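cron nightly-structures :: item 1 of 1
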Amino acid sequence: VQLVESGGGLVQPGGSLRLSCAASGFIFSSYGMSWYRQAPGKVRELVASITSDGGSTNYADSVKGRFTISRDNAKNTVYLQMNSLKPEDTAVYYCRRRPYWGQGTQVIVSS
């Protein structure tokens, strides 16, 4: 199993980023996928999750209405669209398919 995140970077408050996680080594359309994040000095937390068919999603209260998780099973990729970013969204964002993790992509929200 391999999970490779991309799309992180530096963005100003109020800006947007789209993270991607390219998956391989398993039947992608059979598994639910999740995004987690870990800020410096804090525990890793669930940001959003999506079922295998994309029919159901779940979000942390802190990102509801700002972030959207989606997936393209034809491309074996899960996305996290992040809008109205805040400094407190600064973290390393990880893609997860239990029990596997990607290497993470850094998101910094700062002016």
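cron nightly-structures :: done
The chain has no helices and eleven strands.
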